[in-house]
Amino acid sequence: MPDSAKAKPHIKPSKLKTDMAVDLIGVNKWYGDFHVLRDINLKVKGGERIVICGPSGSGKSTMIRCINRLEEHQQGQIIVDGVELTNDLKKIDEVRREVGMVFQHFNLFPHLTVLENCTLAPLWVRKIPKREAEEIAMYYLTRVKIPDQALKYPGQLSGGQQQRVAIARALCMSPKIMLFDEPTSALDPEMVKEVLDTMVGLADDGMTMLCVTHEMGFARQVADLIIFMDAGQIIESNVPEEFFNHPQHERTKLFLSQILH
Amino acid sequence: MTMSEGDLAVMELRFVRAAMLESQPPPAGMRGAVGWLRENLLSTPFNITLTILIGLLFAWIVPDLIRFLLIDAVWSGADRDACRELVQNRTVGACWPFVFERWPYFVYGSYPLSERWRVDVFFVMLAIGVVWMLWLHAPRRGLGAIYFFAVVPITAFILLTGWRAIGLEPVDTVLWGGILVTIVVAWVGIVVSLPLGILLALGRRSPMPAVRLFSITFIEFVRGVPLVTVLFMASVMLPLFVPEQYSPDKLLRALVGIALFASAYMAEVVRAGLQAIPKGQFEGAMAVGLGYSQMMRLIILPQALKITIPNIVNTYIGLFKDTTLVFIVGIFDFLHTVEVSRIDPKWASPVTSTTGYAVAAIFYLIFCYAMSRYARATEARLGLSDRR
Ligand SMILES: Nc1ncnc2c1ncn2[C@@H]1O[C@H](COP(=O)(O)OP(=O)(O)OP(=O)(O)O)[C@@H](O)[C@H]1O
Ligand SMILES: [Mg+2]
């Protein structure tokens, strides 16, 4: 995106209030008796891109869903841009306003058009005027390369297009942090690239990102840090180079040998 | 295998399209009346059997019905003699003069003659409201909603019960009857039960235990007793709690009973709809920062109500027919006025009852069928955004 700065004169980039975007300190979580997150410690600075990988059921989704409180943690602290997540609904709303999320299954609102999907939260949560919300939405829809689909319903789009709408929808709230939970794993192979390209563009713009993904090419290209999880804990974290070339833990080696073929 | 054979095999596999095929109309059997018949009525042996059986059923019922209602029917006369076979010396069908004479009573009950224009005004106002709300391309539907949910109820109340200060003689609800009562009861039930049902359904899923407990108790209690019991309770038990002089009007009590009863059913209907909404919709809404009420209002309820339209209308149709039960507590709804008229000695004849009931059946059929048609149309329209 060479001239993205020029193309968005009225769109204010959101800055984090603190250096530390996300801070997880000794986080534990249980589903009933099942200890799903075990002593998670993770610090994400503003502008960092974190890729999280690990076998199915290792707790990756659960961890990033705790960051915008779609899941509740029982022990430890989660601080998002200086706001600690507790039962305080105001704090939760504050965090959700600043954190965008993209899901594996898009979770677009099927009864609203693409444009309405994108303007809904800005209108009702940020309370910005309709015209402006639509301008912002069209700007981001252009960025994810589907401005011409704005008046269609999500059901009329391909999977890759839907996921790009979902990204645009999250961006319309001008989030400071973006969470991605396996955004490409429900897509047909030829649509994966268009979504990954969008995410790379976002990373190049300096967005703070936490991505659960098994797209290792993407991880190599944009990640500042790769985190490997298993059995509810962080097993290993390292910069991509080291992580792929010199994995330390046996579990990591096994995992990499399985997915890199 | 020689070279030339191999070349031949390759030649046979190779294919390059030289000319594009134009789109052709489908074969004749697929189109027109024949195609329709084939596809809808004669597609399988089972389907053919059904078609024949239903055809026979119609052949058996329809001619008799037409003969009774139209061909053999009596169209004029002053009293029972016009409709008696012994007097007329011919086969006698429906006794229409009875219906013509009694029609005002069927419509207004015992509402004072000089005041019946007020009922007419109410009917017209309500009809305008219904059309305004239901006709999708009507102008200013927002205003229509205010009219329907605020203006009509208040005006109707003043108009029908009366208000001496503006020169409208009070009319005791004991005098109300017929279609007026049926419409009032059904309308109140329909207008109250949906919002109340939604609240109860949300309450039932609420994370707050007190709210949940209240909703569950209410729903299960009301659903656990027959409507007749609810009506009896409303008309017999309510006065026990409220001092005699404030004791609400009999019709009002029945209205409350019916509205609450319908709300409990509506709550379950709405809950089923809520349950059908995938978790991802809630998460998507929360993730973009919507609060609980915004999430429900903008994302969840529109989708949940949409998929429940058939069931909502089903409940409405049931409610419309259930209004006939108010006769139990001595209210003269449409069916009750028919019931009272058919035993009127002036018109006593073998066909009077049948005629009365036929009129009642046609009346209820028209209303219920209209509701069901409208629901179908709405479903089709809303289904547009669901194309996958
Ligand atoms: N609501 C829930 N109730 C009980 N157990 C749950 C619940 N949600 C998840 N789990 C369990 O918690 C564990 C972690 O789930 P999670 O979805 O975080 O895994 P994941 O690492 O994202 O796996 P995947 O790669 O398959 O998405 C799994 O064993 C799962 O069965
Ligand atoms: Mg997951």
Would you summarize the structure shown here?
With 261 residues, chain A is of the alpha/beta class. Helices cover 39% and strands 24% of the residues of chain A.
Describe this structure in words.
The complex is a heterodimer of chains A (261) and B (388). Residues 1-9 of chain A have low confidence and may be disordered. Chain A has helices at residues 4-7, 60-67, 89-98, 114-126, 130-143, 159-171, 189-204, 216-222, 240-245, 250-259; strands at 20-31, 34-45, 49-53, 75-80, 83-84, 99-102, 177-181, 208-212, 225-230, 233-238. Chain A has 261 residues and is of the alpha/beta class. Chain A is 39% helix and 24% strand. Chain B is mostly helical. Among the domains of chain B are: 113-170, no CATH class; 184-331, MetI-like fold (Orthogonal Bundle), CATH 1.10.3720.10. Helices cover 69% and strands 1% of the residues of chain B. Chain B has 15 helices and one strand, in the order H-H-H-H-H-H-H-H-H-H-H-H-H-E-H-H. Chain B has helices at residues 3-13, 32-40, 45-71, 85-88, 96-108, 116-134, 141-161, 178-204, 209-224, 227-241, 250-276, 279-287, 292-322, 334-342, 352-382, and one strand at 332-333. In chain B, helix 13 runs antiparallel to helix 15 (352-382) and helix 14 runs antiparallel to helix 15. At the A-B interface, helix 3, strand 6 and helix 4 of A face helix 12 and helix 13 of B. Magnesium ion binds at residues 60-61, 181-182 of chain A. Adenosine-5'-triphosphate binds at residues 31, 34, 36, 54, 56-62 of chain A.
SSE ordering of chain A: HEEEHEEHEHHHEHEHEEHH
Kindly state the mean pLDDT of chain B as a whole number?
A: 86
Largest beta sheet of chain B, briefly? none
For the biggest sheet of chain A, the summary is: 6 strands, mixed
List the helices and strands and how they pair.
The complex is a heterodimer of chains A (261) and B (388).
Chain A: H1 4-7, E1 20-31, E2 34-45, E3 49-53, H2 60-67, E4 75-80, E5 83-84, H3 89-98, E6 99-102, H4 114-126, H5 130-143, H6 159-171, E7 177-181, H7 189-204, E8 208-212, H8 216-222, E9 225-230, E10 233-238, H9 240-245, H10 250-259
Parallel strand pairs in A: 3-8, 3-9, 6-7, 7-8
Antiparallel strand pairs in A: 1-2, 1-4, 4-5, 9-10
Helix pairs in contact in A: 4-5, 4-6, 5-6, 6-7
Chain B: H1 3-13, H2 32-40, H3 45-71, H4 85-88, H5 96-108, H6 116-134, H7 141-161, H8 178-204, H9 209-224, H10 227-241, H11 250-276, H12 279-287, H13 292-322, E1 332-333, H14 334-342, H15 352-382
Bound molecules: adenosine-5'-triphosphate (ATP) and magnesium ion.
